């Protein structure tokens, strides 16, 4: 991975870990529960991706900085716990949307760099984006966002597909990354704002 992609990945971990902290705070978990929820949200999707792609050891074992980012996020949140409690109901889905976009781009990029085909890359991008949030919601006894009616996994797949297309056209990685981030984030934020959903089959 390029240097800037590494930092983008760390940003995704921090954003998703913070979403885990907020949910843990709302469900009145203790600091250990908060750490667990932040960790599974921050690195759960990437861990599952690496296991499926046969990457050994998984990314956070070779780069413990990911774990330090999670620990720092939880520590700072505990220091400012009063402010975390005050965060509005709208903050969690917005943070989740940013994490979804970042991890979709990172997961798609990694699969393509490892030489996998476009369909596998799209699947890995989506998995990286949604798996951590699923684990977070299940542990907090909530219906995962991906299983609700609003557009979620579809936004991730659309962004990942755009990345694959631009990658195949030999455009710069930065352009493909920005397109993936923009499409995923725009679709997800629009779904949150206007409650957009795929049609339900009769």
Automatic annotation (TrEMBL):
The keyword Flavoprotein does not apply. Residues 6-78, 94-166 form the Glycine transporter domain. InterPro entries: Gly_transporter. It comes from the Bacteria. The chain crosses the membrane at residues 6-25, 32-52, 58-79, 91-112, 118-139. It is found in: Cell membrane. Its main location: membrane. Belongs to the UPF0126 family. This is Trimeric intracellular cation channel family protein. It comes from Modicisalibacter tunisiensis.
